[in-house]
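Hi everyone,

Forwarding the result from last night's run.
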Amino acid sequence: MTTGVDDTGRSFLTVCGRGVISKDRAMSALKPHIGRGADVLTDGAPAYVKPLAELGANLTQTDADDHAINRVNTLHARLEDFMFGFHGVSTKYLQAYLDWFQWLGAFTDGCGDTGDDRLLARQLGNGLYRIRRRDYQRMVPPYMDYWRKAA
């Protein structure tokens, strides 16, 4: 996953394959988000060097544990809290969950005028479901009375 946060707090989260990121995957993940002349601070992964040079960005690399990339580390911590309740997510649906997380973040960043945005986000994040998984397990499938009569 490639993650970025700019000075205004806008962010992106992009699934770009499994394992160590390659230069090609880094380019496809970064190209829609990084413009010419952007100042980019990354961890020490060598895969970022060539793609960011081609995009015309000014690259500075640092240790992943350095406080300079705290914005990304904070975003990852919030993402971890968001994903905790799902108890595992299929890789093929991961981008959809990341998009959902980003969408919720748009309501909770305090940009709303009335505070209704935060209320909506809390309701979506902590919503109540009338039917739970265990209720479905006890539910009689539809048309069972028809099949019983036929037998």
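The helical segments are 23-30, 49-54, 70-84, 94-108, 116-125, 133-138, 144-150.

Cheers,
N.
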